[in-house]
Design goal:
Layout (H helix, E strand, L loop, with lengths): L2 E5 L14 E6 L2 H18 L6 E5 L5 H16 L8 E8 L11 H15 L6 E8 L6 H9 L1 E6 L8 H15 L3 E2 L1 H11 L3 H15 L4 E2 L1 H7 L4 H14 L2 H13 L4 H25 L8 H9 L3 H4 L13 H9 L5 H20 L4 H13 L3
């Protein structure tokens, strides 16, 4: 799932109790913030009197002065009685003056945020509920810290594909999205969907809609469905190439190599981004399986659970996430296929990768030929 935190008022914040009907939705993942804010609004709408109780205010300002106007409209909305219903649901939508930019750093924007916070700090009347949503807020700002503790807050931040461990979060997010739509899926289908969509929440929503319509009443998603409907990105092709090598699908690996060259990827980039990491992960996974007599995994998370039970001394050399926990997803995928290879073959393939690197830099040999030969050798153990 998208990186998310949820906070509710605690006894420490006694003044926050009147704001039990305040909801703050924010984060750097624009697609997730908009989706969840809209879903929250729809969920609360019936409870707070239906469409006649709804008051949606545009939080996007084109200037610092307009930010003051938006804040004033919000303060007036939460302080005025409902006109057509017994209750009122106010949504200040997509504030854009809470970020670390020229508008967000202006004195007027600071003043506008103070007006919004003040309107909430005095407490909401029982007949009023409020949603505030904002994209990419500066979390260092006092306004962000205030709003995130005045009521219930949901923070949706983008997954960083450059950091280890993002795949586990993407897996959780994808499974949750499928469950929400009432779709069951083969694990291979979920893995391929993650490979092809990556950490882009908006892209996931678009692809999920297509897949939902395509499978219809079948309600079960297969790997073939994903392969047919979801176009691979450059990063997805790189990821899929590594998996094809590990699984011994040589013909498919060579097709993907052709696709990367067609996208003007460099041979050195393909070698270092797809082939070398794949062989290294296979070697590390095989060592863990053999050294600690771990059971051969059928699914990625089988291996994850096995490794997490090992003593710290056995996992000190493994990659870690930003929070210090083990980053095991790439190794888990490798572990599924590691039994195909001998340790000797994997070590010799790593040496072959080094030789290919030298040939690409120092000789005039066709780069495609160099990598194709390496892939054939790597994916077909003796």
């Amino acid at each position: 799932m998208v990186a998310r935190t949820t906070k509710k008022p605690t006894s420490k914040n006694a003044k926050s109790a009147p704001n039990k009907n305040f909801f703050f939705v924010a984060g750097s993942d624009e697609g997730a913030v908009k989706e969840h804010a809209a879903a929250l609004f729809d969920r609360l709408l019936s409870k707070w009197g239906g469409e006649f109780a709804a008051e949606i205010l545009d939080g996007a300002a084109e200037s610092a002065e307009q930010a003051i106007q938006r804040a004033g409209q919000f303060a007036g909305a939460v302080q005025s009685l409902p006109m057509f219903a017994d209750k009122k649901l106010v949504w200040l939508k997509n504030i854009n003056f809470m970020g670390d930019d020229v508008l967000g750093r202006s004195d007027a924007a600071e003043r506008a945020l103070e007006i919004i916070a003040s309107a909430l700090e005095v407490g909401l009347p029982e007949w009023c509920a409020v949603i505030i949503s904002t994209i990419a807020p500066d979390k260092r700002r006092r306004a962000f810290k205030t709003l995130s503790t005045l009521g219930e807050s949901d923070i949706y931040d983008k997954l960083d594909e450059t950091r280890p461990g993002w795949e586990e979060e993407a897996m959780s997010r994808t499974i949750a999205s499928l469950k929400q739509r009432g779709i069951t899926a083969e694990e291979d289908a979920i893995l391929l969907l993650i490979q092809r969509v990556g950490a882009d929440t908006r892209a996931l929503a678009v692809e999920m809609e297509k897949l939902d319509l395509y499978i219809g009443e079948r309600r079960k998603l297969t790997e073939e469905d994903v392969a047919l409907l979801v176009a691979p990105t450059r990063g997805a092709v790189v990821f899929e190439l590594g998996n094809a090598i590990a699984a011994g699908r040589t013909a498919r690996a060579l097709e993907l190599l052709d696709a990367l060259f067609a996208q003007n990827e460099t041979a050195m980039g393909i070698l270092l981004a797809a082939i070398v990491p794949t062989i290294r992960n296979l070697l590390v996974a095989k060592d863990l399986l053999e050294r600690h007599k771990l059971p051969r995994p059928v699914r990625p998370f089988d291996f994850t659970r096995s490794v997490e039970r090992l003593p710290p001394s056995a996992t000190a050399h493994l990659p870690r996430k930003k929070d210090g926990s083990l980053s095991l997803y790439p190794l888990s995928l490798a572990a599924i296929h590691a039994s195909r290879f001998s340790t000797k073959h994997l070590r010799s393939t790593l040496h072959a990768c080094a030789d290919a690197n030298i040939r690409l830099v120092t000789t005039q040999t066709d780069p495609h030929t160099v990598l194709a030969a390496l892939i054939v050798s790597a994916s077909n153990p003796e």
